[in-house]
Amino acid sequence: MAVTCPECTTRFRLSEALCEDWRDPDRALGCPHCGVFLRVERGPERTGLRSAILGGFCGAPAGMLFAHGYVTGDAAVIVLTGVVMFGVFGLWYADNWGRAMHFVPSGYRQVIQASPEGR
Known about the structure:
By secondary structure, the protein is of the alpha+beta class. Helices cover 39% and strands 18% of the residues. The protein has two domains: 1-44 and 100-114; 46-98.
């Protein structure tokens, strides 16, 4: 996963990041270019009520139609209700776990010293 530093706009991988204390979230992810440590923030939490209503009104009838199509052997009903159930699951996933994750400065900075010219 690539991370873009909001201070110096350098892109770096997690394997290249600075880490002073992995137990402290403010000092676990640092930019190797400028030394600013970043903290992970997510979007606002959601209650999930909208997902429950959508799943109840769309997922339950689609599941019953899927079972009916399976019993009767109607391939078209199986495919169409499978697509609907897949779409309902996709919307539920996007509503619950699709919140944007971004990195903000944690307020901690490591001083990066330049290496001597001879080395």
